[in-house]
Amino acid sequence: MPNTTKPVLIIGGSGVVGSKAAWFLRRLHPDLAIAIGGRDRAKAQAVAAEIGHASAEVVDLERPDLGLPGNNRFGAVAVFVKDSTLNTLRYSLEHKLPYVSVSSGTFEIGPEVALFIHKPDRAPVLMASQWLAGAAVLPILHFASAYESIDKIHIGVVLDEQDMGGPAAAADYERLTTVSPAALIIEDGKVSWVAGEEGSGRLRSVDGVDVSAQAYSPFDVISLAAGLNARSIRFDLAYGESASRRRGAPYSTEIIIALTGRKRDGSFGTSHHEIVHPDGQAPLTALGVALGLERLLGLDGAKPTVPGLYLPESLIEPAYYVRRVQEFGARFTMDGGEGVMAPSMAIPA
């Protein structure tokens, strides 16, 4: 049975995305205990009071014990900041706590993987650094069920310059786009790294406007290469003005997907899909982490996840994710037609 008596510790839980993850967990599981972790106790207490049935914890990433009490008080740990010390992962493995992280680049996962390999039987570790914690990968795997085989996958995303989120998200973006000058793609069945002109591209926003983009490599590329074995996979990021802001509305976040391959009816062709959330990137990331925690802890009614190293698509059913993400406000379209839309839930400002 899942342990829902000990609180889920959300480190960075008073930030823009972490606080939404706490709110989503509360909506999904009203009785779940939650601990909001951060450097500022007052901010953590404010979020805890807002969501209810929650506590506040001061977290110090420089300390191996995170500055937390010695007794094993928590049921799981989710981290919304880049922890270069790896102390959050060490703490989780030491106390056998399910763990979720979202801030690592494809080029920097070695230390986390090595630490897990040395303690593989301690806890389930979910590495959810795909774009917005699975917001592209899981729908693609859902759409892929219409195909016998997929040859090419192109993902284009638009991140509005007003939708960066808090300081932690801004620091992640700066690090991930500057530390590694090259981006991982799959080309002609081979892993390749592109930079400069080779990494430059364009994508068509959901309003039909062509915008400049740059190849980018969150975990989506390696997830899809492993899961679908397509011969060509590329992820392009456009940072600037979203379609909604061009028409005078607040910013949104956009994911544009093209899948090419042989469909189950025997025909060969390309399908185009668009996913838009009118409140930007934070709700999608928050929900991805919330659903990951739900599966790790067995809150969905199945058994809790056993120790292991996981990606979101190895734990979360794509169809279930698509249903949930629509319930929380995402809009899906396919080849110009409106997708099935579930009733949306109000999202806090």
Q: Can you name the CATH architecture of the largest domain? A: 2-Layer Sandwich
How many helical elements?
A: 11
Mean pLDDT: 92
Helix content: 25-40%
Shape: globular
Give, in order, the helices and strands.
EHEHEEHEHEHEHEEHEEHEHEEHEHEE
Q: Low-confidence segments, ≥5 residues, pLDDT <50? A: 337-349
Q: Over the alpha carbons, how many angstroms does the gyration radius reach?
A: 20 Å
What order do the strands of the largest sheet run in, or round the barrel if closed? Answer: 10-11-12-7-13-14-16-17
Strand percent estimate: 25-35%
Q: Care to count the β-strands? A: 17
**Given this structure, which CATH class of the largest domain is correct?**
Alpha Beta
If you consult CATH, what is the topology of the largest domain?
Dihydrodipicolinate Reductase, domain 2
Biggest β-sheet strands, sense, barrel:
8 strands, mixed
Name the structural class.
Answer: alpha/beta
Terminal residue distance: 34 Å
Count of the separate structural domains: 2
Report on this model:
The protein has 349 residues and is α/β, with parallel strands linked by helices. It has two domains: 8-132 and 284-317, 3-Layer(aba) Sandwich (Rossmann fold), CATH 3.40.50.720; 134-280 and 321-338, Dihydrodipicolinate Reductase, domain 2. It has helices at 16-28, 41-51, 87-94, 110-118, 137-143, 167-178, 196-199, 220-228, 243-246, 281-297, 318-327, and strands at 8-11, 34-38, 54-58, 76-79, 99-101, 124-127, 147-160, 183-187, 190-194, 200-204, 210-215, 232-240, 253-263, 268-277, 308-310, 331-334, 337-338. The strands form three sheets. Strands 10-11-12-7-13-14-16-17 form an eight-stranded mixed sheet. A seven-stranded parallel sheet has the order 3-2-1-4-5-6-15, sandwiched between helices. Strands 8-9 form a two-stranded antiparallel sheet. β13 and β14 (268-277) form a beta hairpin. The radius of gyration is 20 Å and the shape is globular.
